[in-house]
Write a structure and sequence with these properties.
Helix content is about 25%, strand content about 20%. By secondary structure, the protein is an alpha/beta fold. Strands 2-3-1-4 form a four-stranded antiparallel beta sheet. A three-stranded parallel beta sheet has the order 5-9-6, with helices on one face. It has a two-stranded antiparallel ribbon with strand order 7-8. The longest helix is centred in the first third of the chain and has 24 residues. The chain is globular.
C-alpha cells in the first residue's frame, strides 16, 4: 500500500492552517482613506513653532507610518479650524482618535454644485437692511468655494478699486493656465485644493479641465461675479440686454474683493 494517502492525511490540517494564515495576512493589509482630523490646538506642545510641524509629528509617531510624512499629510489647517487632512489606515486613525487633542473625524466626501437666488435666500434688500447699512460690503473680502474663476472676466477688473487691505495674508497661486499676475485689487487671491481628489485616485482631465484655480465649467466664475462682480455695461443674457438700473441691478458695488478657493473639478 502506498504511504502517500497517509502522508496527505497527516499534512492536510497543516496545509489548511498555512492557507488560513496567508488569508489573514492578506486581509490584514489595510487600505488608506482620506480623513479630516479636527484637533484642539490648546494641546499643541510649545516645542512646535507651527501647527503644521505638530501635525507632521503626529503622523510620524503612528505605527507603520512611512518615513516620508508627505505620503500621509495633504493639508494643514490653522485658521477657521485647527487640524489636518491625511491619508490614513483604520489602525492609524484609531491611534489618532485616542489622543486627548482629537475632537472629531470627518471622512472624505464629495459635494454637488448648487445654484440658488443668493440675495433672496439671505434676505438682502437693496435699499434697506444690512446691505446698505454695511456700505454694500465696502473693502470686505469675500471667499468663494467653487469650481475656480476666469480672471480675465470684465467682472473682475480692478479699475477704481482701493488698495488691497494690509490685513490680507493670502496668495494668488501659480498653476496650469493660471499665473499670479492674473490677480489684482479686485481678485486678490486664488488657490486650488486637489490633493484629496488625487489621493482618492481621481485624475483631473488635462483636456477638459485645469489643475489650478482656473475655472473650466464656469460655475465658480458665475457665482463669484454674482456675489462680488463689477457692474459691466451692456451685459446681456443670450442676446437680451439687462437694463443697468437700480431695480434690475444684480451685482454689487466696486469695493468688494474676492478670494477664490477651488475645490470642484469635472
Amino acid at each position: 500500500m502506498s504511504p502517500f494517502p497517509l502522508i496527505l492525511q497527516n499534512a492536510l490540517p497543516w496545509l489548511l492552517l498555512l492557507l488560513l494564515g496567508v488569508n489573514n495576512a492578506i486581509s490584514a493589509v489595510e487600505e488608506y482613506q482620506t480623513y479630516i482630523i479636527h484637533l484642539d490646538h490648546s494641546h499643541k506642545p510649545e516645542t512646535f513653532l507651527t501647527h503644521e510641524s505638530w501635525h507632521r509629528s503626529i503622523l510620524k509617531s503612528l505605527l507603520s507610518s512611512p518615513a516620508d510624512d508627505n505620503e500621509l499629510l495633504l493639508y494643514s489647517y490653522n485658521h477657521v479650524m485647527h487640524g489636518f487632512s491625511a491619508r490614513l489606515t483604520s489602525s492609524q486613525l484609531f491611534e489618532i482618535e485616542k489622543s486627548p487633542a482629537h475632537l472629531a473625524t470627518y471622512p472624505k466626501s464629495f459635494g454637488k454644485l448648487l445654484t440658488t437666488y443668493t440675495p433672496k435666500f439671505l434676505g438682502l434688500k437693496h435699499n434697506s437692511g444690512i446691505w446698505p447699512a454695511a456700505s454694500y460690503g465696502e473693502d470686505v473680502i469675500v471667499g468663494i468655494i467653487d469650481t475656480g474663476i476666469w480672471p480675465e472676466s470684465e467682472s473682475f477688473k480692478d479699475e477704481g478699486m482701493s488698495p488691497v487691505p494690509q490685513r490680507w495674508e493670502g496668495t494668488c497661486e501659480n498653476g496650469i493656465a493660471f499665473s499670479p499676475s492674473a490677480c489684482n485689487r479686485k481678485l486678490i487671491g486664488a488657490r486650488s485644493f486637489s490633493k484629496g481628489l488625487q489621493a482618492g485616485g481621481i485624475e483631473i482631465s488635462k483636456e477638459h479641465d485645469f489643475n489650478s484655480a482656473r475655472d473650466y465649467q464656469g460655475h465658480g466664475t458665475h457665482t463669484a461675479s454674482t456675489a462680488v462682480g463689477n457692474l459691466v455695461p451692456g451685459v446681456s443674457h443670450f442676446g437680451c440686454n439687462v437694463p443697468d438700473s437700480d431695480t434690475n441691478r444684480c451685482t454689487t458695488q466696486y469695493s468688494l474683493m474676492v478670494l477664490m478657493c477651488r475645490i470642484q473639478w469635472t
